[in-house]
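Q: How would the structure tokens look for this protein?
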Amino acid sequence: MFRFKKPECSIFVFEKRTAEKLHKPKRKETVTEILRASVKMLERFRHPKILQIMHTVEESSETLSFATEPVIASLANILAYQEAGGTIAGPPSTGASGHHCPTGVPRPAHAKEYSFLDIELKYGILQITEALSFLHYSGQVIHKNVCPSSILITKKGTWKLAGFEFTERTNETDATDPVPCQPWSTRTSKLVQPNLDYMAPEIQINSTCSILSDMFSLGMVICAIFNHGRSLIQSGNSPSTYLKQMELLDEAVHNILPRIPIPLQEATTRLLKKSPGARPTAQLLTLIKYFR
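A: Here is the predicted structure in token form.
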């Protein structure tokens, strides 16, 4: 008699009532459509640094669920703990002089206590860079929502890219050339839009994106990691606030650089250039000294 051990997994459940505040039935359905499409994308892209789906979407009138390889938290969960004063001393910075996160704020319910070793951060950032390289060149897809909530940490400590809800196809001729895309809008629920605080400026200003837009977002993630979990842009889901803070981004990057490992500083500065052509691709980023 043989006994088979069932593989361990993590189950994600979306309660459809979460979208009920959108009121309009079509908008409510849009949320579930986006989630279904995201899971299909994850199933399509099999790569060691992309989250593995173990059981496809199952849906009822009240929920939508699916199973993945075992994860302990998203990077957003862990950074939320740090931002609320968890594992690192000292106030986080917005990068702009004279402003910092208020102290004594209650820790978010979703925050997860977890401390990264320096080597975990190094290889975690590398793993997401490798996932983007695969996505951009083999998958010919722009992720368009690289942010802490789209990065999941597995039980083995591997960082996996997920959150494929807002992808765009790359330019067929050159993946670094822009393609049309939708900017962030207050007329649409934030539930069905990317994270504005990590969005590349060309998306909001020119309604275009490319693989280099993902690289800007990765640069913002790197800064948040070394800024106690706090993004350099705090838009509050306001496009006008986003644009005002984007004008001050160079100063913000300059102020945060001393917290970032020296071998990563130059690359981070280039990732956050407002001109897409000045940013390194994922392929080039994997070659920097920091990852050796």
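DSSP finds nine helices and ten strands in the chain.

Residues 72-84+92-97+113-291 form a domain with the Transferase(Phosphotransferase); domain 1 fold (CATH 1.10.510.10).

Upvote if useful.
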